[in-house]
Description:
The chain has eleven helices and nine strands. By secondary structure, the chain is of the alpha/beta class. Strand 8 and strand 9 form a beta hairpin. Helix 6 runs parallel beside helix 7 and helix 10 packs antiparallel against helix 11. The longest helix is centred in the middle third of the chain and has 19 residues.
Amino acid sequence: MVLTVDPAVLPAMFNAVLNKAISDSVFKAKVDASAMRVLTAKQNRGLLAQGMDVNSAQGSVDWQAAYNNGARFAYVKATEGTTYTNPSFAQQYNGSYNIGMIRGAYHFAHPDSSTGTVQADYFLAHGGGWSGDGRTLPPALDLQNNPSGAQCYGLSAAAMVNWIKAFSDEVHLKTVKYQMITTSFAWWNACTANSSAFAATNPFWLDSYTGTPPSSIPAGTATWTMWQSATSGLFPGGQDQFNGNWTQLQALAPTTTNPRPPGHTTQLLGALLGTNAGPLILLWGSVATLLWRQRCKPAAHHPPRCASPPSSSAASRSSCSAAGQSSASLSVPCRSTPARPTLERSPSRPSGTVQ
């Protein structure tokens, strides 16, 4: 047998093995670990940091071609306001998954038409949910200039922050995930007064078309998590970059098969007992975390105790293998660049009125 080394056939070879492993658990179990490391070495050098975002304007996407060109993650528009759903959503969302990408769904916000809670529920009911399958990115909220009125939809900065928080809280309640916020710094500065209210919870996916990564970052946020660098290019739709390596991208889409970690209980204790209970809460958190880690560690001759399937209503925000990850740990410092000079709505994520 002659082992081919022709680079032109490597993508097809990798896709064949990957698709077989995804569909056939017996085959997957028999694949030699060293061979899989060779197959993924090229990806681990950073190729999987490239991605794309699509909507109905892209129609039926050739996902094989996008994958062969280096795209390894995708965001797909699901909904807009409470009246629009992407007619191409199923082909785009399922197609990106089936080809081997990590993918997620996004919602185009209309803060002037209904509450954040109502729009979050509409989004979650029409494709915006999250599953802990190791291949699903957090839901995303797209905040752009109003396509048919005042830039900030007639809301004050405080009202806009409250609207976004209502959306975020509802998504977190229903999925145990904080959604990605996709916007430009110019919009964020104008419509939220550069709020820092989401810096500790929500990763940012920023639009910046200057050719270099964003240097103007929402207040309190260490850096960007994803960056839309262009509205068209090598891949269909928007051209995106993840600010990290493959392992960090996987941490943003964890495999979750365990109940909620003790951090949720620690937060609840803090709310019930007040700030004066800080030392007690810290002690509880330390002990609970140690117990949690031991609970999630398989015994030598027994299956893991944390292997029970998630409930149908929600999945845990983090797994044992990715416990303690934060949005700040998923990215690295970026180069300096001038702030985006104009307030423009991203053409790759257009209003549903024309899509």
